[in-house]
## 1
Amino acid sequence: MARYVANRVAQAIMLLVVVSAIGFAILHLAPGGPLSQYAASAQMTQEDLDRVSRQLGLDRPLPIQYLDWFGRMLRGDWGHSYRDGGDVLSVIGSHLGATFELMATATIIAVLLGSWIGVLGALRRYSLFDTLATVGAMIALSIPTFWFGLVAIYVFSVKLDWLPSGNQETIGDGSLLDLLHHLIAPALVLALVETAMWGRFMRSSMLEVINQDYIRTARAKGIPEWRILTRHALRNALLPMITVAGLQFPTLLGGALVTETVFTWPGMGRLFLDSIGYRDYPVVMGILMFSATMVLLGSLLADILYAVADPRIRVG
Amino acid sequence: MSTAVLSIAHPTPGQAAWRRFRRHRLALAGAVIILVLVVGSTFGPYLLPFDDTYIDVMKRFAPPLSGAHLLGTDELGRDVLARLMMGGRISLAIGIVAMVIAMAVGIVVGAFAGFYGGVVGAVLMRLVDAVLCFPSIFLLLALAALTEPGLVTTTVLIAATAWMGVARVVEAQVRSLRERDFAIAAIAFGSSNLRIMFRELVPNAMAPIVVAATLNVAKAILLESYVSYLGYGIQPPAASWGNMLNNAQIYLTSAPWLAIAPGVAITLAVTSFNFLGDGLRDALDPRMNIP
């Protein structure tokens, strides 16, 4: 087990180096590179630019600059926002709570609803429910999230006036009820794609399990059907879903960005778009690197959890 | 004595695939809808009396089915149907061209990684893994923010964030195909590596490549709608399905039809390509048929 984990961690570190190299390359693609903030100012002469470039160490060879930049990233020095001079990592940190709230709620909805749809679809394969669920999932995966958000706002905020059309809370209220009221629409919109994906994977995982010999053995032993379902089938079908959860993470982050924009949700995705609008490259790069690192850690965690849950993985 | 002639006509693989595909009614429906969308946005604009960029300030916010404007007009009095058709040209073209670029890059990377394996393969596939760590919308927007937005950049950037899946598919296929007899025969025959890769191995991996390509068009259309909606893709006055939704949120209360038509068009196109890809997977790859 320790060997498997060490192996997997080493892989993740190697991947982090490649990810950071890509991030560094993108940073240098910016018009004017890391100097763009200074180059935009009309008062800066070429000599000033050269001086700043020397002060920032930008005249050194690229590999040295990369190592320096990577080292600072590891120490938590991610630069400063052009907009307000704030430390990039703490700027991101201050927006993380809202994004996490949204993503966690959407994930809970998706896992519960998706598992139910997937399991029922597998048990009643090719039934009307299964067909509708399969077609529905495909359509759900094809609807642009932002448009679904717009439709939700139109129906539930404009027409029915049941839900607020955006923001995390009513200013001056902020009670738990108010927070939940604001959370419903964006969480459901974000959960749509996740539910569809989760349901599809759950269905095929369940189908694989219920045709196994041990299920037939359990039936032959006369174990009640509901017990076979919960104790034998579901537990085994849920195992590979750990990997699915890891794989879904990038989609979830991307979906959160769009959902936050539509619902003016004060999270990381919204911050990312605002920063792009202001050409605040340190924050843009920071969020890009942060999200990639999160995805990397997510898949590492999923792999390790899977190995903990299923001994066949770490041996094989 | 007469001999009974018993003929068992074995369908060719092509016929078998077509038979399987025909059974997949949603895939057929998808193909038909795609055809309608392509023909409609290609020839439709010639049939309309309105130009997609013609501004008629006297007829702003005309609702659908009121007078001459079938789908109404937008905030500048432009005909929504004309914009929908012109937007369709751009959105569909981006979807297809971005797919072609992504496939080309993915096939080359995957073929080299799968054929050479070892260090070359490891480096290329780790690169694929690394790019996959970036959520595509984040990567796309960050790159779009660094460049001048437009038709060409949007297409190239979408391709840049969509080639990795194909590379994985091709790598796995080529890696297993190169051990097969026909590949070994080609090596013994003295064919060059490039020839073996692209004339022997890749054509034999065509089924999963075609499926991936179809699903890739769906993904590209979706990504175009995201970046253009967020303002970093196709720039007005040119229309795309994504940027038509740009201002839709502001006018949601007064003119909801501005949000409906482009959204339905995107959903219809993406769903159709997804169903088509699903049907092609069932038809071309019988091994995948089991679940």
## 2
Amino acid sequence: MAELVYQKWSGKINETIIGAGPLSIKIGAEEGLPFLFKEGKIPNQPRIAFEVWDIAPADWPDELAGQYKDVFNNPLEWAGKCVQEYQAQAICLRLQGAHPDFGNKSAEEEARLIKDLLKALDVPLIILGCGDDNKDNEVLPVCSQAASGKRCLIGSAVGDNYRTLAVAVLADGHSIIAESPIDINIAKQLNILISDMGIPLERIVINPTIGALGYGLEYAYSIMERARLAALAGDKMMAMPFICFVGQETWRAKEAKAGEKEFPQWGPEAERGVAWESVTAVALLQAGADLLVMRHPKAIDCVRKYIEVSFKDNI
Amino acid sequence: MKKLKVTFYPENKSIEIEKGKTILAAAISAHIYINSSCGGDGVCGRCKIILNKGEVISQPSGRLSPEQRKHGYYLACQTLVESDLEVLIPPESRLELDKLTQEEVDLRLKGLYSKAEEVGPPQSLIKEGIFRHSPLATKLYLELTPPDHTDRISDLERVLRHIRQNYDVKVIQIGLVNIRRLGSLLRDSDWKVTVTLGKRNGTTEIVLVEPGDTSEKNYGLCFDIGTTTISAQLIDLKTKKILGTKATYNRQASFGSDIITRIIYAREEDGLEKLHHAVIDTMNEMIKELVRENCVDLNDVNCILCAGNTTMVHLLLRVDPTYIRREPYVSTANFVPTIRANEAGIKINPRGLLSCVPGVSSYVGGDISAGILACGLDKEEEVCLLIDIGTNGEIVVGNKEFLISAAASAGPAFEGSGLSCGTRAARGAIQKVKISPKDFEVSFNVIKDVKPIGICGSGYIDIVSQMLKAGLIDKEGKFKQVKSSRLRKSDIGNEFILVFSGDSGTGSDIVVSEADIENIKRAKAAIFAASAILIEQLSLKFGDIDKVFIAGGFGTYLDMENAVSIGLLPDIERKKFIFVGNSSLAGAREVLLSYEAMKSITEIAKKVTYLELSIESRYMDEYMAAMFFPHTDKSRFPNMKE
């Protein structure tokens, strides 16, 4: 039988460490394309973080919200439930309540929450702003300081607004999420700009922006694939691990959230949403995702099993 | 309809106009030229005027600050005349239509025509005498043998036989006008006449028969009709001597600064007519002056050779350019037959000829064919690149084997248009800038050494490059948070004050805004991306290019290092760059003087492959990658240090 030929790459993805304690996680460090273990070493399995909000999300569909209904109003308990009940390896806290339209919580309030969370949790913490540039510039530096030394991953830096966050992240020893709108060039430009601010390359994680299944997933896939190929071919400014916000995108899709009464032929929503989130996540893992932020515990469980099975061959 | 009187100051020039017309329309009728980049859409804010007296109806505009509104400023294009008016035109709104000074002309035409030391390596440019001397119009002095009983062929036959026997030229055509006059003319002039022969589309015709010997007096003109600038030379066709060179602004600028705006304007009522007249009026005035200054009789000017982009040629010939901007972007004619200048409204000898350099496509015109000829691109052994930076950026790659071209809609940023303090490269324009990295102090150089009124393209290139080096802006072109009294926040974003109001010629601060830098970034990205696509199309790298010819009105005072550092030009050996200035005019002159050059340029226009970037899927990607200073892919600019 003919021997299989394997591609050998000159580049390698950076390894980013999130968290400071014994439960810190490592992402990235691949030497080849996803799951092609013979191409190069893939020392770290992709990780999944549970998404937790500082306020009760208003727009989560019932099927999803139902999973957390007892803890929905208490981010500390919510995060605790994810760790204790679902064995979360990381928590992604979205500071939605800081948004001027959704509660307008102060920077101090959010910082206090983060301190409390860090005290209560041993797993690594990812912190996301509310999406309002001005407010994020006010809140995130204070939160970053509150988490100083805990090696969090904080986001998101975008092309128009990266400096304030970059300065804070650099000073407090965290890593930064660089978000670009499904564009390989803008992703790279932002990485250059952030690294120009003095942040080491291994402390940058790319959020390539994704679409859920049926909502541009293949577009996101091809952008990630191209970025990964460029990185493995030696482009250091593309050699960052990817973070993908799977939950956020999936649960916006009509197919994930619509009730069975509305579309009886689509089947029960309890299965549908989970399937939608799982399929989206698995596709992105194949594109090279290193860190997934997900919502539904069943979907997370399913994807975890997929990773486990896929990594069986990684000897 | 009631007529109202509008008086413009400081000229104190009045015009009667119908009620309800715009002040801009009144100004054009009064032959007062006001800036109007958008062609009267009210979006560019360049046509500010001050109303001293009278009533108007005005559309609100975000282009006027509350301060300006308080002081009676209006946009001329958005303001309708309601009563007799007194209008003051502030200097910044004035479209300087004065002739460029000799120095400015020299600046524009530096390169091919300049003194020897300023020309690039001569082997790259067209060699003297490469084409046999055979101008578009040739004069022959004939001493004919009068007829007798043994030689009774007709008068016309006699003339043709003489030419055939003595000059080996086969005349095909002669106009009826000439034949009607021929009998008496030959006899009255004792059979000694001068015949003007013209080359028309592969045939030779007798343009004119004159009594006596006037063969010493044969002149022609070559023109470069640019979107912004029109340049012309008066040539002695017999001696090939350049008698005079002039450049002036294209008056069509009043109808919009780029070709697309003008094509749209052409569809308006009388739009085509107005655009046509704007260009021929400009040309006729230039001809009149060239002729007067050199004591040449207008009747001895027998031909004109024009090179211009496809739209300019359409407008010159009063051909509707509409379809150039409609998919699939097809022009009415790229190869225009030689016509009588008279037909286009150009005033030279009434029977004189006008020929246009053939173009490649709707967006790569005769100016580029002429540029290729002038640079000798079609004769090069090695692969060379020609970049013509104008309102449109045209790129040609090739050598004697092949030529491929593309046009990038760079926009008029490098000509100073669409920028908050942009101006054309003329008197009062800041053309060279240095910014100290220590204290951000600015030093600059102004064309003609007067108080600055604005910044031209080369000035902007220097500014962006210097700001990057001084750490004022990041690689995306956004201002960093630095402390400087020159940096301030306005309601439309951050801006850098280059010249404080006290030192400027306009009385206002001359500033560079984040939006200006964005504009420059887009323009340079378009040109770089087009070059990159063409190079890649041929499976080449920039490093494989033997020579890079840089043409265009501003290519002559371009700081190469700065142009590379912002990513406009590729980062290759600097000695490969050759500045050629106005290569279009040079090419037109060659063609005027040689029929062989005309054949050669026709071959060039046919040979050039045109790559339509708008349907090229990689273009957008290349463009996005180039939207960074100098480029997203650092490896393309290996010599640019951090």
## 3
Amino acid sequence: MFKYMKTLNYPVNIKKKDLKMAKYLHTQFGGSNSELAAALRYFSQKFSMPDEKGKSLLNDIATEELGHVEMIATMIKQLTEGASVEEMKSAGLGDMYSEHGMGVYPSNASGVPFTTGYFAVTGDPIADISEDMAAEQKARAVYENLIELATDEDVIGPLLFLRQREIIHFNRFKELYKYYKKKGY
Amino acid sequence: MLFENNDYDFDILNLAGFNFNRPQHSYYEYEKQNNGLVSTEEGFLKGNMWKNEYAPYKNMPPVRLKPTCEREALLFKIMEIDFAVNDLNLYLDLHPEDMEMYECFKKYTEECIELKDQYARMYGPLTLDETQGNTYDWMKNPWPWDKTGGSMYV
């Protein structure tokens, strides 16, 4: 059971409209290395973890990732606040506007809808946790690309926070991986 | 450059004039110990409670948070302590036998509950089970993705 807390994981308070940045940020909302992919990946994989360490860690990281999905969607929402159709068009968001208006839809930066094909569930803890480690590194790299693309401190702050979370999650998954290897899985 | 100042003061959330009551029982005692943790202020801004696991990108320092009113300052403090609970939670999932860290976890959890209760009494509920006031105000704005006049919580 999930219970909602009416805060973000880390404050997002973007005052300056930036439609191009909003477009780029979609990659972490509904792209292949996105927070949504991470949340659903760990949420689904938790059901085949063999012991209490794996079950709890995947459950708890999945929960945190859902909070990160909310942060990214909030950033997109705030970056597009008050934009005109003309501005959307000239920022390359005309295609997205035609289908989603000013709504926030989980797609990648090019507008390709999210798919669960972006992750795997094998039922094998070693295979699944290996994928989780790679996923955290890929998301870290994407955050670094996004930080390079960003110009506003209000955008860079949350991105630095989220990037560090990828590093922590990688470290935890790596610990779990080593522990399961030692146990002979 | 955005980040010319590398001398970072992490004690930024207890700004003069923002005098909400932070429970005193936990953090001085725990953060002084040499247990591998940074302070909750530092941890929240860096995205990581562990001294030896922080790996900044191109040495960029975290961005300073600037609460604009007492309500926002209290909210940030709740988010900060809740973050510490979360980071210790992931560690304890793999190291449940670490009693020292479990004691920290319990103190932060307790502190978070107290601060959330204080917030609910002053400004409204952050969780559904805190919705106990005279009117049903769970659905009232702001929601976390809202912003009004440049600040979400004003």
